[in-house]
Design brief:
107 residues, 4 helices, single chain, mainly alpha
């Protein structure tokens, strides 16, 4: 099958592989905030597939750190878009960061 694809190298960088893992978990948190899924179930399914494909799951601390970093980046993006509901959307993202960080402290 003929397919075309595009690679966007604007964000390519060397770094902790857990950054990509956390970004995916952050995307799952976004889906939850928009009422489109259960982040726990989706994260567990992702982790299972990731490990089955040969990846190694980051520890809980790195996973939480990079997930929160992704959510903070998404919050910054919301402020730049200035949609009518940008403040509510940004507040929801920051609240989710707080929830994840407080849950991490209880581990």
């Amino acid at each position: 099958a003929d397919q075309a694809c595009l690679l966007d190298w604007d964000r390519a960088h060397l770094g902790d592989p857990a950054c990509d893992y956390g970004r995916i978990l952050g995307q799952l948190q976004l889906l939850d905030l928009r009422g489109k899924g259960d982040p726990s179930a989706m994260a567990e399914a992702f982790a299972t597939a990731f490990v089955a494909a040969g990846g190694s799951r980051p520890g809980a601390r790195r996973e939480t750190f990079w997930t929160v970093m992704a959510l903070l980046n998404f919050a910054l993006r919301e402020t730049r878009r200035l949609r009518p509901d940008w403040l509510d959307r940004t507040g929801g993202l920051l609240d989710r960061c707080d929830l994840l960080l407080n849950r991490r402290e209880s581990l």
